[in-house]
Amino acid sequence: MAKKISSILIANRGEIALRVIRACKELGLRSIAIYSDEDVRAVHVKRADEAYHIGPAAPAQSYLNMAKIVDTAVAAGADAIHPGYGFLSENENFPEMCEKKGIIFIGPTAKAMEVTGDKMKCKEVMTKAKVPTVPGSDGTIEDVEEAANVANKAGYPVLLKSAFGGGGRGIRLANNEKQLRQEFEMASAESKAAFGKAALFVEKYLQHIRHIEFQLIRDSHGNGRHLFERECSIQRRHQKLIEMSPSPVVDQKTRERIGEIAVRAAAAVDYLNAGTAEFLRDPEGNFYFIEINSRLQVEHPVTELVTGLDLVKLQIAVAQGEEIPFKQEDLKMNGCALECRINAEDPFYDFAPSVGPVPTCNIPYGPGIRVDTYLYPTCTVSGYYDSLVAKLLAWGRNFDEARVRMKNALDEFAIEGINTTIPLYKTIMDDTNFIKGDLSTDYLDRFKIFDKMGEDVKDRTKERALAAVAAVLMQSEFVKKAGAVQDNPAARSKWKSRGAIN
Amino acid sequence: MEFKVGDLAHLLDGEVVRTTGDGSSVLVKIGGKEHSLRLLRSGTNEFEFILDNTYHHAKIVQSGSSEVKLIVDNQPLSVKKHSKLAEVLEKASALGAAGGGDRNLASQIPGRVVNIPVKVGDGVKKGDVVVVLESMKMQVAVKAHKDGIIKEIKIKQGASVARNDLLAVIE
């Protein structure tokens, strides 16, 4: 479609909705927001040119209500819809419905989404395009001999995964062929008992892996570019916590080599607009493609900071049928960027979610600091949506400058009313392994980061002991003067208890 | 008055020596040493002051007879107050008098009760799961804060709880 976009409905909420609205304002486009009952006072509603109520709090009835959203876009006269990330962004019915109603979908085609959404199908396509994937079976295996062959080719140790469900049975590890045959027996029997078929996958077990992804952009004229890599190895339960660019283990040669593979992967699925090719890298330096995320990702600002590009504006240009305005060789990696995902979770209480009003907050700023957030004093963090409340980014001319800027920004960041994961990042910024770039997806456990976090809190408490006692003395004085009753169980209940600031 | 800051082992004695003029200049004695304090701003729950030439900001989050929870310079911590009287009161309540305090297991978060894997009379160890709540698309286990026996369960499956609501009593 080569239609000029003059208005965009943002089918999302929170910080990403505000991000897209900002791009609209820069381009002089009319921004249309949608909001649920929970988000009546949300910042993206305040900043948009127009806002439409979309439904009650529950996502299924609001931000996932595809028909209602498209109808709203039509009624509002929106030229295009930006899906943000999460919610409907990777639902292939969404671009289809938009097309039927004559609305431009800012993202890939339904067809590309279908392929990238099916991991096995995608793996097939990639193998044909000579993109290296995790060694293992190309499809399901029902016969132990086939499993042994695949395992021998891939190299031990291997994982045996069930093709159906997941449940508690999960994944089995086999260190050699004897173990494989044993595990296969048992896994097949379980699978047959539960699902009537003994269908399993065999995959090489990669340890101490690093998660390295490449940002991609591809236009409707077949031009594909990679916008360098991001390393996202520090994760908890498969959720990314910290992302950075460049990766400490990617040199220019590797960047060009894997970048070219990523661009080829995008072409293989005829991808359109912005996306990310994810790879796993083993300690030997081998890269394995795992999947393409067919949306703009949470961590896109990391790439924006090291390339100087505005990815949302680029998305809008591509959606209008424009050609990507730069060649691959025009791009240069500039400096280093880090991102910490600040979640409303208590890292000292097993990451328990924290919700409620935020009476006040102090958002850091200064040289090299960028914050993408929906927080503002008197806003509310809702329990209906995910726990990401802010993305704190730091850019520096090199890793260390970025790291120290991030550390200082974390010290300045104050969010009252809820618990956040800020203390965890404070500890990581000072961790020698992080500073050395010794990262892997098991980083947190491997280097006992949670224990260190506890120690750091003790240190910070010690530094403040004098001031703390002084404050308590002042409180007694104040209360004495005011003549209030300090010690009284009834009065105790009048004190609202608040969550802590980091 | 003696104070225990967080988990720090040593107690700090603290007292106000004198206040001058309009009350904004205070001389305090903490840990046996005198310190000059200049109060910049004070409210019921919040204080900004300069202590020995360093600026500090403190916000009182929760205040009780024996413990104050506050945020000092962006770091949450607790200060326990010890006086002879407070000790006597604590010992008295530990002998089974009224007053929940340590026996109460309260919820840290608002949520919905999805599972209660214990019943009244069960013995639990510190860390055992007493209640499972659901919030923000996640399940959270509320664990016993001490060893003991479940004396009471205050909530039912499916109930909605708010932060600090009492969930159970462990003797």
Summarize the structure in words.
The complex is a heterodimer of chains A (502) and B (171). Chain A is α+β, with helices and mostly antiparallel strands and 502 residues long. Chain A has 18 helices and 24 strands. The radius of gyration of chain A is 25 Å and the shape is globular. Chain B has one helix at 84-94; strands at residues 2-5, 12-20, 25-30, 33-42, 46-51, 54-63, 67-72, 75-82, 104-106, 111-115, 123-124, 129-135, 138-143, 148-153, 160-161, 166-170. In chain B, the strands form 3 sheets. Chain B has an 8-stranded antiparallel β-barrel with strand order 1-2-3-4-5-6-7-8. A 4-stranded antiparallel β-sheet of chain B has the order 9-16-14-11, with no helix packed on it. Mean pLDDT of chain B is 86; it is low at 96-100.
Beta-strand fraction estimate of chain A: 15-25%
Order of strands side by side in the largest beta sheet of chain A?
Answer: 3-2-1-4-5
Sum up the overall morphology of chain A in one term. globular
Oligomeric form of this entry? Answer: heterodimer
User: What strand order characterises the main sheet of chain B?
Assistant: 1-2-3-4-5-6-7-8
3D shape of chain B: elongated
CATH class of the largest domain in chain B: Mainly Beta
CATH architecture tag of the largest domain in chain B: Beta Barrel
Q: Supply Rg of chain A.
A: 25 Å
* Strand segment count of chain A: 24
How many DSSP helices of chain B? 1
